[in-house]
Inverse folding.
């Protein structure tokens, strides 16, 4: 069973930075697509960024140039570096992995950006 555990959320002022981490279990971690999603109050969950095992990345337009997704396969960890945060980035951020066609989710970590 694959488990994903997020950390690094918190309260930050607008313009600040946070770094989210996602610790994954399972020896097949290196052969998957990792992603970060977020869900703001009253809104649907949306994709923030994805990264393949080969390092290809893709970002939502709203975070391009501000967020960076990365991964360390040796440590079974994915991360999301968030800079120049805005109040509209406030949401619960979820780590996601697609492994052999199966989808796995973390429980989420709350990011709150104050104006």
């Amino acid at each position: 069973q694959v488990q994903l555990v997020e950390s690094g959320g918190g309260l930050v002022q607008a313009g600040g930075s946070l770094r989210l981490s996602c610790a994954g279990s399972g020896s097949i971690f290196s052969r998957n697509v990792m992603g970060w999603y977020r869900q703001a109050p009253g809104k649907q969950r949306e994709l923030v960024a994805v990264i393949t095992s080969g390092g290809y990345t893709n970002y939502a337009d709203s975070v391009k140039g501000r967020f960076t997704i990365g991964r360390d396969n040796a440590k079974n960890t994915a991360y999301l570096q968030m800079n120049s945060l805005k109040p509209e980035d406030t949401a619960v951020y979820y780590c996601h992995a697609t492994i052999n066609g199966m989808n796995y989710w973390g429980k989420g970590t709350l990011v709150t950006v104050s104006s």
Notes: The chain has a mean pLDDT of 93. The chain is about 0% helix and 55% strand. The first strand starts at residue 4 and ends at 7. The two ends are 40 Å apart (CA to CA).
